Amino acid sequence: MSDYYYICEKNGVGLEAYPTCEMVAEASDRAVHLIYKIRQDKQDSSFTDPPLVALIGPGYSSEVQKTSYFLSSERADDRLLQIGFSSTAASLSNTNIYSNFFRVVASDAVQIEVMISLMTELKWNYIAIIYDDDIYREEGKEALMTRVAKSSICVATSFVLPIGAVSLIQVRDILQKIITNGESPISGVVVLTSGAHANAIVTAASALKDTLSDPISFIFSEAIGLSDSYFSSNTGTVFKASKGAYVVSPPQIRIHEFEDYWFNTFRNASRVVEETKTNTWLEKVYKEYSSCSSSISMCSELNSEQIEKASQMSSWTSYAIKAAYVTAKVLKQVHDRLCSGQQGMCSNMKSQLYNNKGSLIEEMNSLSINFNTDFTNVPAALTNISLYFNDTSDA
Questions:
Q1: DSSP code for 298
Q2: Residue 180, SS3?
Q3: For residue 50, is the peptide bond before it cis, meaning its omega torsion is within 30 degrees of 0?
Q4: Strands 386-388 and 368-370, how do they pair?
Q5: Over the stretch 169-228, which tens digit does the pLDDT of each residue have?
């Protein structure tokens, strides 16, 4: 979009990426740095450095809860617009707490309804729940319990897994307790865990499968992200217990242009070397798939299978791309309103972006996007999509 000067002539949008490493403390630290930058911008009377205009992410709901809480605690004109692309916790729809936050992916309230509909269709009426011991999954479990109470489905038992690595013996014992629970057989198990814990569950269940007359049926939450790696061993063998399992997920949109870009990058060693000069993530990924610990220029080229895996999209990629388009559209909306057709950022727009970050949040409340008419060179998979935000800031 910057190449085509979508927002205005002479000016594009830059991205600065920060890894939070799935750590709430790291995300909180970054939020403090952003608040410092907001105050720096306000003191930059000559508009010397590019202004901070928005935050996309972080990826996990627990990280967003903390960062949005910090950023929303600022004065209204200092609140930084934050757009989520994979944080689905239903609590994030509370605009009284998370007043700066919008998201382009559905809330977990939708996921819970899909689970209820699926269990009803499968005629599950007696279930068990396995969930992780963190705020996000605890919220999900409580929401599911509340919704189940209004249906004909009963929760027989629930088990919590500790954060971090779990032993297969520990998981097997939980599954044994579920199997032998009461007199009535369990219809199925709803799994609200991380991908790593889901992998431990299907591994343990597969070891038990041959000893059971009726195999355990599973419904996994969106945390799996439709990644088949959680359902197979290191050798690529699909676990027995994963066959017939269900995964509830937001709609998956494949951005072929994104995949093609990275596929063509990974197949060209010299291009990889050039791009790693400014992209440390790329170097890490290339070394991981080539099993190389040397300098990137010394690493062997990837074979076709390695390239396929390295360039594979995350289930959240299309939503991250949508978030970038939303950011561009709101900035263009501001430019069109304040700059009266002038090229570049006019003085009114600069003053607003440097001194009143919260104005972009107000703009978002009236934002409506049609990817067909609002953008040129949009990825084919995003055509015919319209997007707006409801009163809980959910798309």
A1: G
A2: coil
A3: no
A4: antiparallel
A5: 999 999 999 988 766 789 999 999 988 899 999 999 998 877 766 788 999 998 776 677
Nearest to 75 by CA among 351, 362, 354, 358: 358
Any idea what DSSP says for residue 188?
A: E
Distance CA 375, CA 395 (A): 18
Helix, coil or strand: residue 316 = coil
Host H or E run for residue 387: strand 386-388
Question: How large is the greatest C-alpha to C-alpha distance in the chain, in angstroms?
Answer: 75
Asked which of 254-263, 291-300, 319-328, 352-361 is least confident by mean pLDDT, the reply is 291-300
How many Å apart are CA 61 and CA 67, to the nearest integer? 10
DSSP, residue by residue, 63-93: HHHHHHHHHHTS-GGGPPEEEESS---GGGG
Consecutive H or E run containing 254: none
Cβ(57)–Cβ(22) below 8 Å = no
Distance between CA atoms of 173 and 188, rounded to whole angstroms?
A: 17
3-state secondary structure at position 12: coil
Which tokens hold the place of 322? 């949508």
- How far apart CA 319 and CA 83 sit, in angstroms, is 10
Span 25-32, average pLDDT: 95
Angstrom distance (rounded) from CA 291 to CA 41: 43
How high is the pLDDT of residue 266?
87
CA dihedral sign of residues 60, 386, 98, 331: positive
Other beta carbons less than 10 A from residue 389's beta carbon: 19
Instruction: Judge whether 90 and 143 are in contact, CB under 8 Å.
Output: yes
